[in-house]
Design a protein that fits this description.
ten-stranded antiparallel beta sheet; 10 helices; single chain; about 30% strand
Length: about 325
Amino acid sequence: MEALDRKILEIIQDGFPLEERPYAALGRRLGVSEEDAFDHVEGLRQSGVIRRLGGIYDSRRLGYISRLCAGVVPEGNLDGFAAAADKIPSITHNYVRSHAYNVWFTVIARSEAEIQETVRVLEAETGLHDAHVLSASRMFKINTVMKAATNVTDQIADKPVSDKLDSKGADPFVPNVKDRHRINTLSKDIPHTLTPFSDLGIDISEIRGDLDLKIMRRFGAVLRHQQAGFDANAMVCFSVKDADTAGKVLAENPHISHCYERAPFEGFPYNIYAMFHATNAEELQTAIDGSVALLGRPAHAVLTSLKELKKTSFVYFEA
């Protein structure tokens, strides 16, 4: 990847210009023409490095809930399970990982009942069994921007947070018809044009308003980590007594993109979940070993990503 592409990725993941001619603004910042900026971004989109350009919203503020689900699918049933999950829009991420609980997928829906029904359908139609729906009791880090830099210590521009996920959180945002249309549109990919916001008929001030209200976490590029140079990743789960301290320590690690506290379940006695990313397996192992040492070497499990079955963005207010 050439230097200009790397710089573009660093900028537009959380700072895509909210202007009528965003590529002209990006070009001014980079010292290139509007057309050059557009062509480079288009190249990154077409090559698959950029999965989507749009808004990344806070599901809870919009009245949705998100759950991580774990289960077991026999090897011979994985293709059927993947095909069934692929047809369900509420399932956004789906991975095969190196553990007895070998499938891990994320479901976003309006209610707990909808999520439970999604899992029930998968159990009935595929080889999925021993499934668990896992809520997060505390969020320590989310919304990470992956940087395609060569310096290992500067690969991830993170946004650590400490957020209790309970009923005392921020008030839900109650959208009107216009809000629903805007959010639905911006949770998809914006047009591949020089004037995407005008072409969508969306007032940029309203996008900035979504950011100010914190119903949108950021507006920018969502990357495919492997294509962006982060070839190795793993979900590492720890069993710790002091979850608060452990979560805050892990949130400071530049290799970790997401970190949550979740309740242990039978056969899986871990309460802190952290997603690690690195450019190669050796770097990944070094990052994991360092974190294990910092936490006092607690019991832990390393679930490497064996296969990505699905990775997409949720589209809000689709129906």
